[in-house]
Amino acid sequence: MSEAHSSAFSLKPSAFFNFRSICVITIAFLGLIFILSCSLHSISETQKNVHLIENVPFFPQEEYQCGPASLAGVLNYYGLKISPEEIANEIYSKSARGTLTIDMVLFAQKIGMSTKQYSGSLDDIRKNIDNKNPVIVMIDTGIFFVQQYHFMVITGYNEEGIIVNSGKVQNKFMPENKFLNMWGKTKYWMLEIRS
C-alpha cells in the first residue's frame, strides 16, 4: 500500500507541472494573438481611397529617438538635409529619456521653419495631407497609469485610419479608433511645420 501511495504521490507534481506548462503556453499564445491583432497593418491590406504623400523621408528611430527621427523626416521633406543624430544632439533630454514638444518646436523655428503646435483633429490631419504637408503627432502608447509618449509622422489616410512613419516602420496603416485612443491621451497634440 505504501508503494501505491508513493507512486500516486509522484504523479501529482508531474501532473501539476503539465497543467502549469499548459497554462503558461496558453497565456503566452493569447498574448501573442493580442499583440498581433493590435499591430499596424500594411497599406496594401487597406488601399481603399488612400491619400498618401509620396517620398516623405523616413529615418528608422533608435531607442528614445522618435522625436528627432520624426522631425528629421519632415525637415528633409521640405529640403533641409539634417539627420536625426544632429537633431538629437541639440534637443534630446537625457533626464526625460526623450524629446520635449517645446524643444521640437524651437529647433524647427531656430533653423528658419514656421511651426504651429496645437490640439488637432482628424480633419486637420486630412487637410494637411491633402495639401501635401506631413504632420507630426504625439501619441501615448502606455497602459493604465503608465505613460509612454511617442512621436510619429502622418503621411496619409483613408476612411479607416491613418498612414504613419513610426519607429522602424515606414508608411504603415493604423486603424482610426486605435489612433484616436492613443492620440486623445496627449490631448491630440499635433505639430505643423512649413518652410
Defining key terms:
195 residues; alpha+beta; Cathepsin B, Chain A; 6 helices; 8 strands; 23% strand
Description:
This protein has 195 residues and is of the alpha+beta class. The chain has 2 domains: 38 residues; 153 residues, Cysteine proteinases (Cathepsin B, Chain A, Alpha-Beta Complex). Strands 1, 2, 3, 4, 5, 6, 7 and 8 form an 8-stranded antiparallel beta sheet that branches. A hairpin with a 2-residue loop joins strand 5 and strand 6. Helix 2 crosses helix 3. It is globular and about 65 Å long. The N and C termini lie far apart (89 Å).
Q: Which structural category fits the helices and strands?
A: alpha+beta
| Biggest sheet features | 8 strands, antiparallel
Shape: globular
Percentage of residues in DSSP E strands = 15-25%
Summarize the SSE layout with pairings.
Layout: H1 2-38, E1 41-42, E2 51-52, H2 66-77, H3 84-91, H4 101-110, E3 114-119, H5 122-130, E4 135-140, E5 149-158, E6 161-166, E7 169-175, H6 176-184, E8 189-194
Antiparallel strand pairs: 1-7, 2-5, 3-8, 4-5, 4-8, 5-6, 6-7
Helix pairs in contact: 2-3
Give the structure's gist in a few sentences.
By secondary structure, the chain is α+β, with helices and mostly antiparallel strands.
